[in-house]
Amino acid sequence: MAKFLFTMVPADDLGLPTRMVPIARALADRGHDVAVFNPAPAPAKLIADAGLENLPMPSRPLPPWGVDLGQLSSAWDIEQMFGAMYGDEEYTRAAAAVHLDVVRDYAPDVVVDSFGLLTCLAARILHLPLASVIQGNFHPASEGFVWWAGERPSGLPSAAAVFNKVAAEYGLPPVKRCVDLLAGDLSLIVGTPETDPLPANAGVTYIGPILWQRGNATLPDWVVALRRDQPVIWVYSGNPRYGGNAATPLDSIVVIRTAIAALGDTPVQVVLTTGYQQVPDEIRVLPSNFHHAAYLPGLAMAERCDLMVHHGGHSSVMTGLSVGTPAVIIPTITERESNARRLRATGAGEIVMPADGADGEKRIDVAEFSATVQRVLNEPSYRSSARRVAESMRKLGGVQEAANRIEGLAKGKI
């Protein structure tokens, strides 16, 4: 048996653990030793729900993280995003040491990562096989997030110079781009060539949607009892507020506000979930036709609803497509707009773009959103397109194929 460590950026969102936990659970069920590293509150609940070990954050002190949230939210591609996250040399050096502690102390045979640049670095320092499980626009060969806008602008921020200084201290050669570290010895793409296109020579394996839901998961009785003579709309915001009560460029509270303004007290039934996050205090009372739950089993809820409304996270896109449910997306950062545009290109949904207000809050034209919701609900082509994509996804290997490939990588190590 082998020993696997699943890693990712330890952010307080469910997108990355949603794709990693099913593969980790499958390998654990085969008798392997498996641990996950994401101690952030919401992911920790998902990891615990799967019955997996979640490693704690090492006690090594870290300087303040001076991440540029504006650059992060408007990044052209993953390289610029890393520039916003790891441009500070002092923080990056200290954080690299923390992640090296995690990997070295657990001593896995294989590191399985999704967007955890520092654990990718640690795997190379320790000469460990690396399997990457990523969406297409995270891969080094992708056209980035703003793929529709032409050539990448020159001079965008990159943390490559900082990373190369840190890497040299561990005897590693320099890299031209940080994103190159994400391409593992094995690169598994969550999605299909249609939803996550990459060049034919990218050297990747498409595995389809990977989404966590316990095998015995069921929807609560109140969801099952929702009326059948009115549409059910599932509104998923992800993390509404990343900075407590203060606005940040990453926030998705605009999804909740828009849904309330457009759908409140109308002849639809709205199920609002927030991914184990609290509904912000400013949302004092929900309309009478709204029902809130911190978390619901995603695949079951996507099958029950007639329409999904969400922020454009890749896992949210995959959840709807995998069961043939169309979506209206309010993308809150460029990465999510990239995902949303790919979904719209399949014919399975529409986008309503927010505008940035002077106060830092995002706003939506409520009339445009309402009209878009009605169009996607009432035009059969959206659902038929979503079902077509769902059928194409079933032809890929999914969780078990991912586990098979990662086991194969381990056989070269043990």
Q: Give the second-level CATH assignment, the architecture of the largest domain.
A: 3-Layer(aba) Sandwich
- Roughly what percent helix? 25-40%
Helix vs. strand class:
alpha/beta
How would you characterize the largest beta sheet? 7 strands, parallel
Determine the CATH superfamily of the largest domain: Glycogen Phosphorylase B
* CATH-derived topology of the largest domain: Rossmann fold
Assigned CATH class of the largest domain: Alpha Beta
Q: What's the alpha carbon Rg, rounded to whole Å? A: 21 Å
SSE string: EHEHEHHHEHEHEEHEHEEHEHEHEEEHHH
Overall pLDDT score: 95
Strand content: 5-15%
Tally of separate helices: 15
Give the spatial strand order of the biggest sheet.
3-2-1-4-5-6-7
Distance between the termini: 8 Å
**Shape, principal axes of CA atoms:** globular
Spans of at least 5 consecutive residues whose pLDDT stays below 50 are none
What does this structure look like?
- The protein is α/β, with parallel strands linked by helices and 414 residues long.
- It folds into 2 domains: 3-212 and 396-411, Rossmann fold (3-Layer(aba) Sandwich); 226-393, Glycogen Phosphorylase B (Rossmann fold), CATH 3.40.50.
- 39% of the residues lie in helices and 14% in strands.
- It is built from 15 helices and 15 strands.
- It has helices spanning 15-29, 41-49, 69-73, 78-86, 89-106, 117-125, 160-169, 221-224, 253-263, 298-304, 314-323, 334-346, 366-378, 380-393, 398-411, and strands spanning 3-8, 33-37, 53-54, 110-114, 130-134, 186-190, 205-208, 232-236, 269-273, 290-293, 307-310, 327-329, 349-351, 355-356, 362-363.
- The strands form 3 sheets. It has a 7-stranded parallel β-sheet, sandwiched between helices. The chain has a 6-stranded parallel β-sheet with strand order 10-9-8-11-12-13, sandwiched between helices. Strands 14-15 form a two-stranded antiparallel sheet.
- Helix 10 (298-304) crosses helix 11 (314-323).
- The N and C termini lie close together (8 Å).
- 49% of the residues are buried.
